[in-house]
Amino acid sequence: MGEKRLFALRGATRCLNSREDIQEQVVKMYDELLSANRLSVDDLVSVIFSVTADLNAINPASALRKTGRAKENALFVTQEANFSNSLERVIRVLMHCYLENGATPVHVYRNGAEVLRPDRFSA
Questions:
Q1: Residue 121 lies in a domain
Q2: Is the CB of residue 122 less than 8 Å from the CB of residue 25?
Q3: CA 81 – CA 17 distance, rounded (Å)
């Protein structure tokens, strides 16, 4: 195994304002980031979520932990600033992790959030 260095992965997903859909979409985004980047939980440093103000049914970090994921990782949630013409019902993630030096990070934009960064989402 080669040397690893710290990377920041980005992602976003849209969801309905329900406990079930927030949990489902957060888990899918988290799992896809891990899978696409060949990460183990031990490679994670921290996970920061932001949510638009219209999503308040459940905290995304709590939703993720309820599934048994990221139990030992630092999770944090903040509310997005409210800008005019912003996309609604969005959860964004910034995941700090260690990847092999020279790796190409794969960012995950899904469920309608692809429009936020068409240059970065994985097809």
A1: no
A2: no
A3: 18
Question: Whole domain around residue 14: which residue ranges?
Answer: 4-113
The Cα–Cα gap between 55 and 73 comes to 23
- C-alpha pair distances (Å), 53 with each of 12, 15, 72: 15, 13, 27
Task: Find the length of the chain.
Answer: 123
Model-wide pTM > 0.70: yes
Give Cα separations from 63 to 13, 20, 22, 23, 52 (angstroms): 14, 9, 7, 5, 16
CATH of the domain at 27: 3.30.1330.40
Beta strands 90-100 and 44-51: pairing type?
Answer: antiparallel
d(CA 99, CA 107): 13
Token couple for 123: 């097809």
What are the mean pLDDT values of the chain's consecutive 10-residue runs (123 residues total)?
89 97 98 96 96 97 96 94 92 97 94 79 50
Write the CA distances from 61 to 27, 45, 75, 78, 103, integer angstroms: 10, 14, 6, 10, 27
